[in-house]
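Submission sheet (multi-component)
Chains listed below:
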Amino acid sequence: MATAAALAACAVQPPAAKPPALGTAVSAEEVARWDISIPPSGAGLPRGGGTARQGLQVYEQKCLACHGAKGAGKPADPLAGGVGSLASKTPLRTVGSYWPYATTLFDYVRRAMPIANPLSLSDDEVYAVSAYVLFLNGIVGEDAQMNAQTLPQVKMPNRDGFVDMSRR
Amino acid sequence: MNRIDRTKRTLMGRSVSEPNGTIGRRTFLARSAGIAGAAVAGVAASAGLAPGANAQGLAGHPWERVYGAAFAGYGQPSRFELPVVRHFLRPYGDLAPGSGAALTPIESLEGIITPSSLHNVRNHSGTPDIDPKQHQLLLHGLVARPLTFSMESLWRYPMTTRTYFIECAGNSLRNLAPKPLQLPAGAIHGNISCSEWTGVPLRMLLEEAGLQPQAKWLLAEGADSAHMSRSIPLDKALDDTMIALYQNGERLRPEQGYPVRLLLPGWEGNTSVKWLRSLKATEGPTHTKDETSKYTDPLPDGRALQFTFEMGVKSVITRPSSTMTLPRPGFYEISGIAWSGAGRIRRVEVSTDGGANWVEAALTGAERAKCLVRFRLPWEWTGQAVVLLSRATDEKGHVQPPRKEWIAQYAPDARFHNNSIVSWAVNADGSVKNVYI
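Outcome: structure written.
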């Protein structure tokens, strides 16, 4: 049974406002123009392809100045080497020795590289230079074509090297 | 270098002729001489009053005798504080001048809030210059209604205000160097700051888009040229994650993600994606470059921990700290900061004898979770050589570990989540050095 005072107190409260719905609907086509992420499944990998042999030319023009000949590094991070070194006293963590998924290479190179000109490489170029980096690490052959079908199937040496702490 | 920049900012566009904004005594007198100067001398003599009988004999400084600076639209610190600037860490040098970090000079600061201009900055490709009228936040993937939000619409949502620290997972990696670096505290441990953040709970926007049942993760992506991206578990996104729009009362600084960033309280700073342009609901994590090749914690056996999001309990004595000198034995207040990604700080203990004895410090701000706490302890320095340590405990019972214990858990090249105890040696000559014990 509410007293007059309690009723008066209730009347002072404004009715709870629903949160506004100010987002604008966006079409799948428009989303596709913005979505550049590539998960391990390879979903979203574009058409096209490239081999390590083709990738060497891309690498020499666009990558070598920072990542060094054959991905040795300096001044930027090394890209090749260190496979099997992770449990040693001098681990070397590179794309080949440490990265769990080859698809991350496509995702990252396309969105961020070269550092001064990201999103400038064509899809074929990204496939080719990814193939080249994998080739430097002994993971794919020089003429193996990387594309939407083959890239997700590449088994990286450190695929099982991570412990997922997100469900701790 | 920064010293010159700050001088320029003070000078440019303010039409002042003196660094502190005064019009200059000589200028002022010259301007007023014609009006009043001659008249004053004339009045004194003609009225039979002793000339020069003014306040010249009294004490005072020159700045008290001249009219002060005009108003500035956006205030700056005193020119005498110009040396208080961030410490830069640029692993790729001039090749990538905006990649690396600018660390907060914690050794020079007090209180809890970090001044916005000194907030630590961790960037992967410099700070982008974003026009808020064009920037949009896309919310897509496993949602019922893919949506895009303009900044104008985001600024209209109900907001919350919370004070949180943001710490880079790589903070204090410099203290893993083989020999202790003799640098100011901020140059080693300054990849941490604390601000008051105001923004929209992310939950609100996710409910508007409608999450599909298979959605378990969100991929957050920024509009910097690196398009830095991280996968975030959905339960964190729905918990206390904020779409932050304001920092310390004003809109976010560009270095801190203007016009909109993610804010994941207590989690490694990399997950609080700046210049947020996209949130994609996914089934699993995307395993981006920054959650595989980086921000993973390598173990001695060759495996590595992934998704160790939460920042550990930690404290650092900021005063006195390395590179400082205590002028003489006597009273000093030991002051420092403590924090935990798990929640509130329960206690901070300080040792002034290398860890033999510990005393609880007084805390300010301990009621706030995932926020900096200021601790203080009065200390009488006898003039002998001692080692100062601080050790924090959080509300979950986590205790800040000794350095050796932390190192033993990880591979030799481990760099992330170093929350181990920091020790400063005070020598008999008063010099304070960084030491490993």
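Remark: Chain B touches chain A through 62 residues (CB under 8 Å).
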